[in-house]
């Protein structure tokens, strides 16, 4: 017997992906329905379903009576047996969510890590314990495990490059989490590979779906810093990570932590706005989220000090957006974090500074919308990305 060629294996993987993707995205379907939707032959679908069923990804559902009284067998995701785990590590907490392949949340556990500065081991231990708590409470096989961080990620295997919220330099977070987590070790022992992802990239994916799959989206968010991503394509979006908070928009401006001068974050980031509004102490006592929510409330209420801080910052946010948008002309600009509640201000400035180039190219000024997903965007996006990974290579 000869080994199947790589091409044959690739085609089979693509066909497995098409069948599984159809059932997950469209819901339970018959073999002939899948064949019609995927343009595969009925025989091919039957063979592919055998593999997907054996792998525990699909199962048959009880026969139902069709119009002519002939029983039909439907295939559905084997949702009882599998789960995806997404873990988010932010400036204050570890949040771990288990969900089904279809995106239904099964369990969410959140623990504060107490923000021990410069001590990744202590924080990884909290993350590991939270993952193990979820894995123990959800007795399903983990098909995908992703850790999302509020920091840039790079390398093979991926590592956190630097996390300014936690005073980390380069940290191999996967290795530290593995050391403390039985669930991670078991997942890897069964052939799994833990993903490590920057939050803005997966959050952008969730925002893109929430915004109705625009063909081209710029995502800019502000929480503990300012970050974002660029999303290209409507139905099969590609996310490009981008250091949007470090666009050097002020010539000879203040020195930024990144080493450049005049980055957007130095004039429109949370620290500078909270300080200018006298809310730094509130951030210390009640947390950053609460202080930024208070800042937004005060701006919208017309509080003089908050408005005086926000007005020049808003102009710089609009200008940074204008510069990025001119590079690829997105249909939609989504503002996340505390910018979400102030998106109308940014849009007003953008419309006042951008119309000429739009007219010249006969293009509309991109619409600016505030995120409606809030803090959940990264976890929702991580679930979407995990589902896409499972569908792309079902038998991995
Ligand atoms: Zn910078």
Structure described in brief:
This protein is of the alpha/beta class and 396 residues long. The protein is built from 15 helices and 15 strands. It folds into three domains: 6-77, Winged helix-like DNA-binding domain superfamily/Winged helix DNA-binding domain (Arc Repressor Mutant, subunit A), CATH 1.10.10.10; 82-193, ATPase, nucleotide binding domain (Nucleotidyltransferase, domain 5); 201-375, ATPase, nucleotide binding domain (Nucleotidyltransferase, domain 5).
Could you tell me the strand content as a percent range? Answer: 15-25%
Question: Strands of the biggest beta sheet: in what spatial order?
Answer: 6-5-4-7-10
Ligands, ions, cofactors = zinc ion
Q: Main sheet?
A: 5 strands, mixed
Which CATH top level class of the largest domain fits? Alpha Beta
How many strands? 15
Q: What's the assembly state of these chains? A: single chain
CATH-assigned fold name of the largest domain: Nucleotidyltransferase, domain 5
* Name of the CATH architecture of the largest domain: 2-Layer Sandwich
Element order, helices and strands? HEHHEEEEEHEEEHHEHEEEHHHHHEHHEH
Q: How many domain modules? A: 3
Main structural class: alpha/beta
Kindly report the name of the CATH homologous superfamily of the largest domain. Answer: ATPase, nucleotide binding domain
Helix content: 40-55%
* Distance separating the two termini: 23 Å
Rg of Cα set: 24 Å
Poorly predicted regions are none
> How many individual helices?
15
Mean pLDDT: 90
Molecular shape: globular
InterPro entries: ATPase_NBD, ROK, WH-like_DNA-bd_sf, WH_DNA-bd_sf
Pfam families: ROK
Protein name: Transcriptional regulator
Family: Belongs to the ROK (NagC/XylR) family.
């Amino acid at each position: 017997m000869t080994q199947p060629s790589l091409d044959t294996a690739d085609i089979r993987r693509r066909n497995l992906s098409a069948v599984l993707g159809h059932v997950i995205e469209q819901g339970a379907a018959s073999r002939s329905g899948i064949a019609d939707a995927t343009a595969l032959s009925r025989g091919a679908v039957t063979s592919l379903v055998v593999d997907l069923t054996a792998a525990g990804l699909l199962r048959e559902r009880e026969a139902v009576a069709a119009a002519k009284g002939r029983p039909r067998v439907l295939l559905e995701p084997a949702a009882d047996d599998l789960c995806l785990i997404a873990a988010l590590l932010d400036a204050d907490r570890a949040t771990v969510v288990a969900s089904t392949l279809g995106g239904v949340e099964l369990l969410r556990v959140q623990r504060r890590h107490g923000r021990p500065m410069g001590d990744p081991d202590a924080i990884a231990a909290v993350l590991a314990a939270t993952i193990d708590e979820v894995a123990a409470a959800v007795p399903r096989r983990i098909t995908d495990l992703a850790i999302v961080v509020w920091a840039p990620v790079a390398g093979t295997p991926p590592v956190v490059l630097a996390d300014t919220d936690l005073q980390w330099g380069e940290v191999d977070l996967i290795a530290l989490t593995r050391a403390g987590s039985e669930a991670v070790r078991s997942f890897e022992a069964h052939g799994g590979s833990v993903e490590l992802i920057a939050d803005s990239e997966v959050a952008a994916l969730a925002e893109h779906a929430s915004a109705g799959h625009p063909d081209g989206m710029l995502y800019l968010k502000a929480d503990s810093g300012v970050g974002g991503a660029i999303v290209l394509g409507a139905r099969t979006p590609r996310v490009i990570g981008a250091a949007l908070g470090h666009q050097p928009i002020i010539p000879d401006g203040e020195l930024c932590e990144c080493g450049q001068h005049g980055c957007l974050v130095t004039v429109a980031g949370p620290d500078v706005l909270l300080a200018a509004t006298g809310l730094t102490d509130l951030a210390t006592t009640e947390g950053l989220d609460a202080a930024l929510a208070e800042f937004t409330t005060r701006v919208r209420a017309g509080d003089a000090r908050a408005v005086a801080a926000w007005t020049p910052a808003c102009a710089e946010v609009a200008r940074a957006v204008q510069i990025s948008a001119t590079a690829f002309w997105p249909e939609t600009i989504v503002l996340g974090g505390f910018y979400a509640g102030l998106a109308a201000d940014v849009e007003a400035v953008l419309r006042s500074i951008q119309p000429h180039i739009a007219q010249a190219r006969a293009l509309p000024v991109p619409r600016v919308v505030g995120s409606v997903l809030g803090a959940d965007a990264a976890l929702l996006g991580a679930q979407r990305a995990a589902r896409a990974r499972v569908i792309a290579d079902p038998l991995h």
